[in-house]
Specification:
single chain; about 325 residues; alpha/beta; Four Helix Bundle (Hemerythrin (Met), subunit A); Rossmann fold; 10 helices; 16 strands; about 40% helix; about 20% strand; globular; binds 5-S-methyl-1-O-phosphono-5-thio-D-ribulose; methionine biosynthesis; amino-acid biosynthesis; NagB/RpiA_transferase-like
Length: about 325
């Protein structure tokens, strides 16, 4: 599969995640404005992919006439929760004094590193899963999309599934559909189908029931920001999964590159949670599903306290809060 996000020499290319699985479309983005819009409508999404987008946004800014630092800030602020976005911007911007070619080289290095780092983090996490789960083959539960499409390539939490599958250890994956934008039903299910891994999609509300019925050996999720104490911000619904997993004694494993760890954030309370458009809740497939004037609470992420997490695994191994 091609990289989720890449550089062609004069444009950023992304696999458009708003139209999958119906359509596999590649978009070319040539301006900071186009990139910011793509980030905000989740055409490119997932914390590690956003890190690459942040760095490539600085590359686009160096090729325009405007104020590069102001444009870089615009990219960094396109979405607030995944720390990788501002991390990618900062890494590329740090090379600005050495000229545009140095900025580009840094962005390309981030793209190259991403697959290797996620491959390693998920390999180490696969060992953690094997250690904590006795049953074979494994029945895993996935939330949102933390696969190839959420990274430049390979994936984090879904990368664990690829490693376990290669070792013949996967029975099936229960895929939370992930309301309201269906990253699980649309993207994770598509990736699992492409890879030939057996899966079933379930409504998010079925996850606790699946655990209580003994259908889940391990929960695997990615992260958008990990605080210094190990609290984890991830897609809305992750916190509820962690509570249910704790209740049922099921391992709950978080997998992320170290660029998702925000050591400047002491705990999860300070993490800014993106609130999204009420329209995502008030309509489904273009059809209104709520009374006129209904109020909406639509946080894109939640924070799981570290005490509910079995292990946070990066490319450096298990994170010590
Ligand atoms: O709103 P999204 O789709 O960008 O949210 C993505 C997630 O919450 C992922 O689980 C997280 O970024 C980790 S992806 C490896």
């Amino acid at each position: 599969m091609r990289r989720t996000i890449d550089w062609t020499g004069d444009a950023v290319t992304i696999i458009d995640q708003t139209v999958l699985p119906a359509e596999y479309r590649v978009l070319e983005l040539r301006t900071v404005g186009e990139l910011v819009a793509a980030i905000q409508r989740l055409a490119v999404r997932g914390a590690p992919a956003l890190g690459a987008a942040g760095a490539l946004g600085v590359v686009l800014a160096t090729r325009a006439q405007g104020d590069v630092e102001a444009e870089a800030r615009r990219v960094a602020q396109a979405r607030p929760t995944a720390v990788n976005l501002s991390w990618g911007v900062s890494r590329a911007l740090a090379k600005l004094s050495e000229g545009p070619e140095a900025v580009l080289a840094e962005a390309l290095a981030i793209l190259d590193e991403d697959e290797r780092i996620n491959h390693e983090a998920s390999r180490l996490a696969a060992d953690v899963v094997i250690e904590h789960c006795g049953r074979r083959p494994l029945r895993l539960l996935s939330h949102c999309n933390a696969g190839h499409l959420a990274t430049v390539a390979w994936g984090s939490a879904l990368g664990v599934v690829w490693h376990l599958q290669a070792r013949g250890l996967v029975e099936s994956v229960l895929v939370d559909e992930t309301r309201p934008l269906l990253q699980g039903a649309r993207l994770t299910a598509w990736e699992l189908a492409e890879a030939g891994v057996p899966y079933r999609i379930q409504p998010d509300g079925a996850a606790a029931a699946a655990m209580s019925r003994g259908l889940v050996d391990c929960v695997l999720v990615g992260a958008d920001r990990i605080a210094a104490n190990g609290d984890v911000a991830n897609k809305i619904g992750t916190y509820g999964l962690a509570i249910a997993a704790k209740h049922h004694g099921i391992p709950f494993v978080v997998v992320a590159p170290s660029s998702t760890v925000d050591t400047a954030m002491p705990d999860g309370a300070g993490i800014v949670i993106e609130e999204r458009d009420p329209g995502e809740i008030l309509a489904f497939g273009g059809t209104k599903v709520a009374p006129e004037g209904a109020e909406v609470f639509n946080p894109a992420f939640d924070v799981t306290p570290h005490g509910l997490v079995t292990a946070v695994v990066t490319e450096h191994g298990i994170l010590n809060p």
